[in-house]
Amino acid sequence: MEQPEETASEGSGIEVLQEQNASIWALLSVLLSTRTLPHVVLILLLSSVLHIMASNGFETLSAIGFISLSSGNFLTGIFSSNSTVQRWTALPERAEEKSIGRFKSMISSFRICIFPLAASLCALVLLQLLVGENGALGDLSSTLPLVLSSLFVVWAIVQGRSFATWLSTFAAQRLPAPEEAKGSLGISMSVALIILILLSYALLFAFEMITKGASNPMAVLSENIVFYVLFAALFTISFWLTRHQRTIAAHQRHLHRFSSRWMLLTQAMITWHLLTVWRHWTMTPSNAALLIEELLLMMFTILMAIWSLTSRSFRSSFRLVHTNNALPIGLSFGYAYAGSVAMLTAVLDDIQNVMIAGHIIVLLTFMWLQPKVLTKAIGNHDESVKVQRIVANVTPAPLVDEGGEIQEAVAPQGAETPAESDTSSAPSDIGDDVSWATKEPETLAEGVQWDDEIELLD
Questions:
Q1: Which of 195, 233, 248, 310 is least enclosed by beta carbons within 10 angstroms?
Q2: Is 59 a domain residue?
Q3: Is the pTM of this model over 0.70?
Q4: Is residue 408 part of a domain?
Q5: DSSP state, 399?
Q6: Is residue 69 in some structural domain?
Q7: pLDDT digits 0-9 by tens, 391-417
Q8: Alpha carbons within 13 A on the beta-carbon side of 397
Q9: Sites in the chain below the pLDDT cut of 50
Q10: Number of domains in the chain
């Protein structure tokens, strides 16, 4: 009896997505709370310093710093359920603050960063004991930049999965009632295609104007024709990879609505990343714009990653991320993400190539997740549709006469109804065709004339 209860609690795929109601605004209020704002300021300062070090030939020291800070904040997140640690890593309420100078108060607020910095120092000592010059594993410190830079692929995949989790949850909200419907797959995908073409053209036109490129609408279209060829190719591939899932979803109104939203949102993200790659290749934005874009991308990636973890674990007894440790876990991921970008920038000598690689990975991650999320949302609906089709094929439809009254169903051609058939033409009893070896009658009750009334003899 335990298995049905577990299955019932898990629910179908679409129900699981609808239950992921962890508010992103509530998470933002936690991450950007004034009581913990010094932690956010510190990661901006330290990441900038370590990034400059990596760009000036100190890749090893920079990698050690990023890894230590990431580990220290992760340890802080583990112990954040303790009330003492909470008191050390968050500012008191405003009512408890003393009336001192604003500048002095701002400097004093950074005292809440002492505990994660102390934990980072412990991680630094442990790292030196393991891979330092006289470490237990030998002198492997020179390999840390390579290891940290290789994690950029992991962070890019995490970014794609986190954004996809949020988009799937958003698409699953406020769906119509589950009922039979015939969805128009061609119409929904055509509408999505038109919307994406118009949005991408508007963005291309704006980018051309900013970079002082083509200002004529036809010139913008002609100079970016290769982009639209790539756009059409990716749209066609996504359309082909999800054809089976979208066909199944078209039989239910709520599933069809979810699949239409999901495809539109994910194709919009795919188009955006493709447009960003194309812009870096052809329009050469300034270094300041690249740094601002990378900073914003890192912030959104951290936010989506933490939201994805909180929404996934809020129904679980093992809460990996909760309100108390959302900020330190997010900071840990932020230091690791920034360290990977810094190491790749130092290796490739160009942050633009790093961003192009990251956008391509995220783009491919979205395309990989498109059919998988649809399959998870549909669940076992494919089998139920097959059963409904079989039942509909074998069940005769009722006939309606001219007066609107429902008549009895007509039997298939060549078959006789019970009213028309005679008892002599009824199917033979069991054993009619069997040749018995003894002198028993060939069939049970052979030769008996059946009347309307049957007498039971003792």
A1: 233
A2: no
A3: no
A4: no
A5: E
A6: no
A7: 556 655 555 455 545 454 444 444 444
A8: 4
A9: 1-11, 95-100, 313-318, 387, 400, 404, 406, 408-431, 438-441, 443, 456, 458
A10: 1
